[in-house]
């Protein structure tokens, strides 16, 4: 495995991303040292390389990536993995608002708590949160799945259109067009397999406590007559 290290201490986000993209041509693994919570790190990377951010990241870490695997050893600010189409973003700490905003595919994992509006307008893909998620998580969700191991705050699933939000803890309140359903055993088995692949090992009774938030209607903005096809 070819590895390349970048010291981000005295360079701009543009210089860093230019260096990352150049290094991705000939290396399998890129390590960013001294990231100092810089914004926009690993933006727009389209090579299937591993990128390790050795510390915390600022806003929009891993935005618009396709195929890259990004591992943040610390925390992340707002909108990590924004509009990712394919790949993986793993955050060992916590993250701010808008985790996985607008993703089309791939997997986002945050091991601790996240802020509000997790998975806003996500179209597909998977978001896993090891802790709690803030208000309006899943707002305008169009597809994919979110798995919240802890609690989810106010207005969960606000105006959800498609997709599923699995919640292992408390659901404070639901947003418009959201309802709670029970899981089938097949879903519990799928959750267990997925979570264990990311080193989340839960007691068996925890899986029994999971519930899911799904849309009440696939056409929530058209009124009752349109929803019923009249």
Strand content: 25-35%
Question: Looking at CATH, which topology of the domain at 94-227 would you report?
Answer: Pectate Lyase C-like
- Overall pLDDT, averaged? 95
Principal-axes geometry comes out as elongated
Nearest-angstrom radius of gyration? 18 Å
**Number of extended strands:** 11
| Poorly predicted tracts of residues | 225-230
Helical segment count? 4
- Element string (H = helix, E = strand): EHEEEEEEEEEHHEH
* CATH architectural name of the domain at 94-227: 3 Solenoid
Major sheet summary line: 11 strands, mixed
The fourth-level CATH homologous superfamily of the domain at 94-227 is Glutamate synthase, alpha subunit, C-terminal domain
Strands of the widest sheet, in order across it, are 1-2-3-4-5-6-7-8-9-11-10
Q: Ends: how far apart?
A: 61 Å
* Percent of residues in helices: 10-25%
SS-based structural class? alpha/beta
**What is the CATH domain class of the domain at 94-227?**
Mainly Beta
InterPro entries: Glu_synth_asu_C, Glu_synth_asu_C_sf, Glu_synth_lsu_3
Protein name: Tributyrin esterase
Domain Glutamate synthase alpha subunit C-terminal: 15-179
Pfam families: GXGXG
